Amino acid sequence: xxxxxxxxxxxxxxxxxxxxxxxxxxxxxxxxxxxxxxxxxxxxxxxxxxxxxxxxxxxxxxxxxxxxxxxxxxxxxxxxxxxxxxxxxxxxxxxxxxxxxxxxxxxxxxxxxxxxxxxxxxxxxxxxxxxxxxxxxxxxxxxxxxxxxxxxxxxxxxxxxxxxxxxxxxxxxxxxxxxxxxxxxxxxxxxxxxx
Length: 195
Known about the structure:
Layout: H1 2-19, H2 21-31, H3 37-69, H4 73-93, H5 108-117, H6 120-133, H7 136-154, H8 156-163, H9 165-194
Helix pairs in contact: 1-6, 1-7, 2-5, 2-8, 2-9, 3-5, 3-6, 3-7, 4-6, 4-9, 6-7
């Protein structure tokens, strides 16, 4: 039971860091500015639903997709690790590589859901967690991460007011360094697997 709990905590931490809902706070608040509380709630739910749908698809069907494409797990670890590393550097250095920031407020939830929350990094993390822990631990971690993400998005305007944009920016950069560190470990494991 203790092993299960520690595995869930690790998986949740890794996934929450990759999803990085804090990074989405300023974008989400700007896209939902002037909307009613119920509409903001709806957009937060859409964002979480879109991200959750994609994460669960890759959790349950990743090896089926791998078999069709003829991809091995170590090669995916190396490729996914490189993408995670780029994502981490992007977060840590404040770069803006390939991000879609649509201007329409009505699609805020979809834009936040993917690619901001559920991009290549989150998909890679879910697949790697399923390889290490099976289905149950990542499924619990995904659910916990999505609930935490919804709470952060739902109250994003309050959070931004209380904490301030500078602190949110600093937190995003620290999370970026953690993502890069996780990526280095994944790449190393993948290289060992290939050899």
